[in-house]
Design goal:
Low-confidence stretches: 300-314
Strand order of the largest sheet: 6-5-4-3-2-1-18-19
Strand content: 25-35%
CATH superfamily of the largest domain: Ribonuclease Z/Hydroxyacylglutathione hydrolase-like
CATH topology of the largest domain: Metallo-beta-lactamase, Chain A
Distance between the termini: 11 Å
Radius of gyration: 21 Å
Helix content: 10-25%
Mean pLDDT: 93
Order of helices and strands: EEEHEHEHEEEEEHHEEEEHEHHEHEEE
Length: 316
């Protein structure tokens, strides 16, 4: 199993359907679990996906419309009931603090003290490793980006040419030089991996900033282009706009989700067609219980291998 993957728990928008649950996305990231927008029914979807409360380390709410947060009470109470011991950080718009409090304490239960609250405000906020940017929606909404710090990739041929081996390699990485040889002479920059999560919003600068160079972009595509005026009125994106964002931002793998209940599986080719007007990279139309890996790290051109088109698999 990939140590960095997206487990899709729900893909509908305002109204769940027979085949799509309300929103819910768990990003597995090096032993951490980032649960984005747990809508109604998320706790049950987690069971279907083989995900437990102990897999949740972050609860990230983009905004306080019900399809993005009505699952919070069940998740909180499950964390308490299962006696999760590790810290769980909750990130949400500060302006919705009243709604968070109502959801957090929605019913009587034996509470837990492992949840710490991190409300965000302003145009840009950071709760490392998460960066939040304010989007354009009728209520205050934030997009999130999980970003790994950049590093450096060691070049074996350069190390060998300088006679650096064994413990000296670690010394070079820690100190930046060894025996007069610098780290820059034996390595190249390695960008950190990133996942961007963009829910309810109109097109705005923040969408492109969140998506810039993302390895995986999870983005709403509530409507198709014939409903573009409706999308703008209610603060949403079309599939074509999602394709524009992915193309202009250099996204590696695009995941469409948050589909209006007016569309069924038979409409999926139309979503793909709209994206393809602008974006020729990898596209996944999310369905409940999919597992979607974060693309492997970028390598030098000589090391590239053809990418598999089978980028998703059912959750077990």
């Amino acid at each position: 199993m990939s140590s960095r993957e997206l487990v899709v728990l729900g893909t509908s928008s305002a109204v769940p359907t027979r085949h799509r649950n309300h929103n819910g996305y768990l990003l597995r990231w090096d032993g951490q679990g980032f649960l984005f927008d747990p809508g109604e029914g998320t706790q049950r979807q987690m069971t279907y996906a083989g995900v437990s409360a102990n897999d949740v380390h972050w609860i990230c709410v983009t905004h306080f419309h019900g399809d993005h947060c009505l699952g919070v009470p069940g998740i909180v109470q499950r964390i308490a009931r299962d006696k999760v011991r590790h810290r769980v950080r909750a990130v949400f718009p500060a302006s919705g603090g009243t709604y968070w409090d109502r959801l957090r304490h929605a019913t009587a239960f034996a509470d837990t003290d492992v949840i710490s609250e991190h409300p965000v405000s302003g145009e840009v906020a950071e709760v490392a490793p998460i960066v939040a940017r304010r989007l354009s929606h009728p209520v205050e909404s934030y997009g999130y980006r999980v970003q790994e710090p950049p590093g450096r990739r060691m070049l074996p041929e350069k190390l060998a040419a300088h006679g650096i081996r064994g413990p000296e390699v670690g010394e070079l990485q820690r100190n930046g030089s060894v025996r007069g040889v610098t780290l820059a002479e034996c390595s190249v920059p390695k960008p950190g991996q990133s996942v961007a999560f963009v829910m309810d919003t109109r097109l705005c600068d923040a969408v492109f900033e969140l998506a810039s160079g993302a390895d995986l972009l999870v983005i709403e595509s509530t409507f198709l282009s014939p409903e573009a005026s409706l999308a703008k009125e209610y603060g949403h994106l079309t599939a074509e706009q999602a394709g524009q964002v992915a193309a202009q931002s250099g996204v590696r793998r695009l995941v469409l989700t948050h589909f209006s209940e007016r569309y069924g599986f038979d409409d999926e080719p139309a979503f793909t067609e709209e994206v393809r007007r602008h974006f020729d990279g990898e596209v996944v139309l999310a369905r409940d219980l999919m597992r979607i890996p974060v693309p492997k790290r970028r390598h030098a051109p000589s090391l590239h291998r053809p990418r598999s088109q089978d980028t998703q698999q059912p959750a077990k």
